[in-house]
Automatic annotation (TrEMBL):
Its cofactor is pyridoxal 5'-phosphate. SUPFAM superfamilies: PLP-dependent transferases. It holds the Pfam family Aminotran_1_2. This is 8-amino-7-oxononanoate synthase.
């Protein structure tokens, strides 16, 4: 065994020691259930919040566009990969988000990780100084990666702590360079929300720009599922891979922003364009989402119901106010045991452990969908409480 293999095995053993090693678990889908090792499980861990990944209109249009236009776009957007489908869909996405323009990316990770270096480059070239990125401490890993790729040190503020953010903005007010406040609107591991209006006010006061990751809010929250930014953000990143039921991501903002990004965002420039099937699914989702008010109401109502059930029994669900409900456990080993116990009771969830979340904050992350009935939520609540009582100290 050579030095590389020794190093790899040592790194994996370290993960095993701390109960943080990840594994892939292939599963078959059957409606809202998953089939794992011959057992049917109710999925309470996916991001398919409105159940659109199996909607017949999305499936039909994805298949239709693949049949008509082929399985791949064949090239990057700036070579020969831009189909009329791409530009037409971007116009629809801009209208959906009520912005001037939109630009498609392959994934939310790719968009965030390549936008921040592009924005830093803009600041360096036009202002003569690097950008200042004021980052919520619990932002998604792709945003932290974007800062690393940009080669700048992020200025972190405590999670959703606007007083701390203002202190930092004031401290750096005279520092040159473009300033960006960067947040998620719904935080993926905690299920809580940013105060977008207050962030907008701070951005205006300190001549900063607001960048919001709307991955877990788009299609689920806001009027007609348009998200929480409601025109208050300068830059919005949304994904098609969660409540929109498909794959891909899109940035919305001004026409100048999107034109700049297609010239400077490396993830856009050097990636093959999204294939027709993905575009078809997203196109169909945009037709459906504005009319799914009942599904959004049902999802929020059931989330409130489950959260209250857990809190009444004394369990900590953090500041969650959305369809994402963390149950704070603490130790990784215990969180894994509870997840296994819940699976034995017919529900699939996942133990979220460091480094995805801070040390000592391992949790069960419950992600609900509008497909879950009230009776299923009651069953889930009982299964959760039984599993928690059996394994948590």
């Amino acid at each position: 065994m050579n030095h590389l293999q020794n190093a790899l095995h040592a790194a994996l053993q370290e993960r095993d020691k701390h109960h943080t090693r990840r594994h892939l678990t292939p599963m078959m889908r059957q409606g809202e259930r998953l089939i794992h090792q011959g057992r049917a499980l109710i999925d309470v861990t996916s991001n398919d919040y409105l159940g659109l990944a199996h909607h017949p209109l999305l499936r039909h249009r994805a298949a239709e566009w693949a049949e008509r236009y082929g399985t791949g776009a064949r090239a990057s957007r700036l070579v020969s990969g831009t189909l009329p489908l791409h530009t037409e869909l971007e116009a629809k996405l801009a209208a959906f988000k009520k912005s001037e323009a939109a630009l498609l990316f392959a994934s939310g990770w790719q968009a965030n990780a390549s936008l921040l270096p592009a924005l830093n480059q803009l600041s360096l070239r036009q202002m003569g100084h690097p950008a200042l990125f004021f980052m919520d401490k619990l932002n998604h890993a792709s945003l932290h990666q974007g800062c690393l790729a940009a080669g700048v040190r992020q200025i972190r503020f405590r999670h959703n702590d606007l007083t701390h953010l203002e202190t930092l903005l004031h401290r750096h007010a005279s520092q040159p360079g473009l300033k960006f406040i960067i947040t998620e609107s719904v935080f993926s591991m905690d299920g809580d929300r940013a105060d977008i209006a207050a962030l907008r006010a701070l951005a205006k006061r300190y001549e900063a720009f607001l960048y919001v990751d709307e991955a877990h809010a788009t299609a689920v929250l806001g009027p007609e599922g348009r998200g929480l930014t409601q025109g208050m953000a300068d830059i919005t990143m949304s994904t098609a891979s969660k409540a929109l039921g498909g794959m891909g991501a899109f940035v919305t903002g001004s026409r100048a922003l999107c034109d700049y990004l297609l010239n400077h965002a490396s993830g856009f420039i050097y990636s093959t364009a999204l294939p027709p099937a993905c575009l078809g699914a997203l196109d169909a989702a945009l037709e459906l989402v504005p009319h799914l008010e009942h599904e959004r109401y049902h999802l929020q109502k059931q989330a409130d119901r489950l959260r209250s059930h857990l809190q009444d029994a004394g369990w900590d669900t953090g500041a969650s106010s959305t369809h994402i409900i963390p149950i704070m456990i603490g130790e990784s080993h215990t969180a894994l045991q509870i997840a296994h116990a819940l699976e034995a009771r017919g529900f699939l969830s996942v133990a979220i452990r460091p480094p995805t979340v801070p040390p000592g904050t391992a949790r069960l992350r419950i992600a609900l969908t509008s497909q879950l009935s009230a009776s299923m939520i009651d069953q889930l609540g009982e299964a959760l409480l039984s599993s928690l009582r059996s394994h948590a100290a």
